[in-house]
Amino acid sequence: VLLIVIDLDNMGVLSQLLSAGLGAAAGLTFLGISSIPEFIRRKKMSSQQNGHSNPDQGSSDKAAGSALPAPVVTTMPHPTWTPGIKQPMPYTGTYEMFDPTVAPKPDCYAMVVSSFVPRPIALVSSLSTEGHHNVAPFSYFNAVGHNPVNLTIGCNRSPSRQGGKKDTLINIEETGEFVVNIMSDWWVEAANHTCGDYDRGVDEAALSGLTLLPAERVKAPRLAESAVHMECKLRQIVEVPAPDGTPSIAIVIAEVVMFHVHEAVAGRSPQGKLVVNTVPLRPISRLGGTQYATTGTIFDIGRPVMEEAHLGPAQYTASYKAALEKQGKDKDGEQDQQPQKQ
After folding, report:
1. What ranges in 8-139 are assigned the alpha helix state H?
2. Spatial separation of the C-alpha atoms in residues 14 and 93, rounded to whole Å
3. Quick one: average pLDDT of 305-314?
4. 162, 170, 179, 182: least surrounded by Cβ within 10 Å?
5. Residue partners of 26: CB distance under 8 A and separation at least 6
6. Residue 137's beta-bridge partner residues?
């Protein structure tokens, strides 16, 4: 047992230290918006670097442009598991119940952002009809389908505007366009700086030192700091009122009409499809409170192959990956036999 004694006058430091230890155990690195003491940073890095190594990326290597270690690829947590073996929760005790239908709004917010974790973040860049740029992060965000490619963003009414609409929602309603920029750890501080309650018309990109790039199919700009951009066109906005009937949530449904993937994070599936490589992307996710997280550990678990399902995920994952690799090789062979187009 290792006992670490720190200055208990600074409870924020204690909280960060506990988060760092929990993050290492869960394969996540926690980030606070307040400054992190160097010894805590080293503790987090040391904890993660003691795990499995990635054959393509040394586990002791820091990620380029970041004080954090790069993600590592390892095996599934329990490779010897087979169907029927129980995997109990490692904690004892009872459950607390929380009823969101009667709880105050601030309590519901605290429960939602701490339980729906980790959440991907859409750093949305939009343009007003007057030509003003706006950038803001949304963690009520995800993909909802791929044919066509659609995503959703939950825009809550702003308490700082007496329940009024946020600039992002106003711009999307007015123009029907926006860009989602995926956040990575090398620019998380600048990205986070855009979430302030700035007045309408303020350029958050300029305030945060972000660099604008032109898009291909929408007028809203992309952000050069991001390695993955999604140009979006509005399909529908669904309004969800609060229990008292007042406007509360706008669910933005949009179609992605163009992806931009930087060559440094572009990869290929075994079948040759363009994909995003998570390791160099180093995506940032949102947790509760002011916490963000990076992806520390990546592992594969394939879908059960029925004839091998009884053998467990280690076996059917290996078979699944082998089948994908064979498909890729077969496809490469077929392509090699095709006449080259001029």
Report:
1. 11-26, 38-49, 105-115
2. 25
3. 86
4. 162
5. none
6. 123
Average pLDDT, the chain: 82
**Contact indicator for 90, 328 with CB cutoff of 8 Å:** no
Written in H, E and C, the secondary structure of 258-293 is EEEECCCCEEECCCCCEEECHHHHCEEEECCCCCEE
Using one digit for the tens of pLDDT, what is the confidence trace for 104-121? 999 999 999 999 999 999
* Cβ neighbourhood burial of 88 (10 Å; 0-12, 13-18, 19+): exposed
d(CA 305, CA 83): 13
Tokens matching residue 45? 């890095």
Helix orientation angle between 38-49 and 11-26, rounded to the nearest 10 degrees: 10
Kindly report each contact of residues 54-61 with a partner whose C-beta sits within 8 Å and lies 24 or more positions away, as own/partner.
54/279, 56/279, 57/279
Place of tokens 């339980």: 115
Lookup result for tokens 């995506």: 283
Which residue, 11, 40, 36, is CA-closest to 24? 40
Contact 296, 27 (CB under 8 A): yes
Q: Which residues lie closer than 8 Å to 18 by C-beta, 6 or more apart?
A: none
**41: pLDDT strictly greater than 70:** no
Q: Which of 26, 31, 38, 1 is nearest to 16 (CA)?
A: 31
